[in-house]
Amino acid sequence: MTEAAAIVHEEWGPHEYPDERSFCACSPHRIEMAAHLIRGSYLADYANPALRLLPEWTQWCIERTGLDGDAAARSRQTARLAASALVHDEDDEPAAEDDNAPFRRQE
Question: 58 with 79: CB under 8 angstroms?
Fold first, then answer.
């Protein structure tokens, strides 16, 4: 598995014994959340390849779940948009800790 794929896999979730259909679910919200976690957790050199992988990852998930029509199109579009919003070097400074932020992972 490439490093970019490992990062997407780590942030995609769920990790507690999901079945394949649950793991491969690719709603726009899930894609946005994975992109948000990747941007907030990794330096640009690691985050950007993972973000660029999201459209291919999403297509792989779509094929495994049988998602089609408008739902698949929305997921593809969300993945392309997420892949276009890359992390810039000046963003590499760790963000100030905010324990009240939504979706904050426990370290």
Answer: yes
CA 106 to each of CA 11, 12, 91: distance values in angstroms, whole numbers, following the listed order = 14, 16, 22
Count structural domains, the chain: 1
Residue with tokens 């810039």: 88
Look at residues 79, 10, 105, 91 and name the one whose alpha carbon lies nearest to residue 43. Answer: 91
Kindly state the tokens that stand for 35: 């992109």
Tell me how far apart the alpha carbons of residues 50 and 2 are, in angstroms, rounded to a whole number: 10
Place of tokens 């890359």: 86
Q: What is the pLDDT of residues 74-95, one digit of tens each?
A: 999 999 999 999 999 765 544 4
**53 part of a folded domain:** yes
Q: pLDDT tens digits for 15-48?
A: 777 788 888 999 999 999 999 999 999 999 999 9
pTM for this model (two decimals): 0.79
> Domain range spanning residue 52?
3-90
